[in-house]
Structure formats: C-alpha cells, structure tokens
Amino acid sequence: MSTLEKDKPQDEDAPRSGVPMVRARGVRKRFGHLEVLKGVDLDVDPGEVVVVLGPSGSGKSTFLRCVNHLETIDGGSVHVDGELIGFSASGGKVRHLRKRDVTRQRREIGMVFQQFNLFPHLTVLQNVIEAPTGVRREPRGQARERARGLLAKVGLADKADGYPRQLSGGQQQRVAIARALAMRPKLMLFDEPTSALDPELVGDVLETMKTLAEEGLTMIVVTHEVGFAREVADRVVFMDGGVVVESGRPSDVLDNPSNERTKAFLSKVL
Fold this sequence. Notes:
By secondary structure, the protein is an alpha/beta fold. The chain is built from nine helices and twelve strands. Strands 8-9-10-3-11-12 form a six-stranded mixed β-sheet, sandwiched between helices.
C-alpha cells in the first residue's frame, strides 16, 4: 500500500475556482534501491507555464511521468484540477485506481516526449485523430476537421497526408504536439521535447510551444532551453537530488539564484 497522504479527492462536479491545476505534495518515487524523488512539492496554477530545469538524474522527467501516473508514486500525492491521480481515497484508506479510471484521467493530460512515438504506418492526419476517435469515441469526420485545424496551428497543414518518415525531426515533434492537443487536455506536459532534435530544428518546436503558452494552456516543461524559460515561463523550478531546490520568476532564478546548486548548474549551461 502506498504511503500517500490520505486526503479525499474533490467531487468532480464541485467548483474548482482557486484550485491549482497541479498540486504535488511530498511526491516520492523509488526504482529498486535508488530513490529518485525524495519529497517533491509543487503547485501549478491554471494557465501557468512552469519550466523545470536541473542536471541529468535530478528527477525532472520522473516527476513529470508521475503527474500523469505513467509512474506509480511511492509516497505523497498528485492532484490535477482537484482530482487525486492514480488513486482513490476514502475512509482514511488509499487504493490504486482501476486501469480504466487511470486511462480516463490521462485523457485530460497531454504529454509530449523526447522521442516522437508516431505510428510510422499512419499518415500525419491519421496519427492525430487516432486517440480522439479511439479513446474519446469522437466522430471521425469531426476529429478530422479538428486535426486539420491543429496541424495548421503547428504549421503543418500541408503535411496531413504525408507519413512520419517524410518529415524532419522538428516536424514530427510538432505532429506529436498536435496529437496531444487533439485530446483537448487541460494540462500539457513536455519532457525535453527538443533534446532529440538537431539545433536548427529546435526553433520551430519552441515557437509552437510559445504559441500554446500565449493561448493560456497550462504547461509543465522539462527542458535545458534556458532561453525558452526566460522568455515564456511564468515560473522556473530548479530540481536537484530528487527535490525542488529553488522556484521563482525566471529573472530571479536565472539571473540571481539564491541556492548554490542552482548557481553551479547555471554557470555550466548559460
């Protein structure tokens, strides 16, 4: 049984004004004898863009995967829009949710990975409509129309009938973003979305993400792109050793960090 804090999730019909989009408390995660997350606390408000920086092995990507329950946490709790993720809590007891309930929760949380994970045998348009038609049971014609609009949003309207192998890495990543948006998520998670790209392809992906931020989409972005953090983030979080070391406005964390570990990291990447 998890050592999750025993607080009940809010009723789905209850008003959620003033509720953080993400509320993480004491999140712990262990792989064998290695404790990767050692008690992460983080709130993300609706419409906020939070960029998470930190050295390799600091727990950034693991934390992101815990937010949508791709990894099962060993302690603490994660709420998204007031709902406890991956577990149910009642009568002082915490239980794992059934797979179908976890799937329902994940429908509301889009995620873009380092690798694009597109289906190579499907066209770009088919990749984008696969989840809305298969998971949300959206009518195919409606899904196609929305997918074309999303492809236009990410600058790939002319690639709808192409296949992933015909696209550059940056274009494939923008298709992956459109695919995630097709599920109408309330929260988007980006796990180092430009790390697998050649440098000249990074800009278009970051520009797409900047547009989403300007439209008010709630985003948590794990990245090493400090320029993006400075320009787009509402808040920068620095993680190291499985905990949040420092958090604040980009100008404060990037230009005048208060923690020595943050200073040491930034001295190497800036």
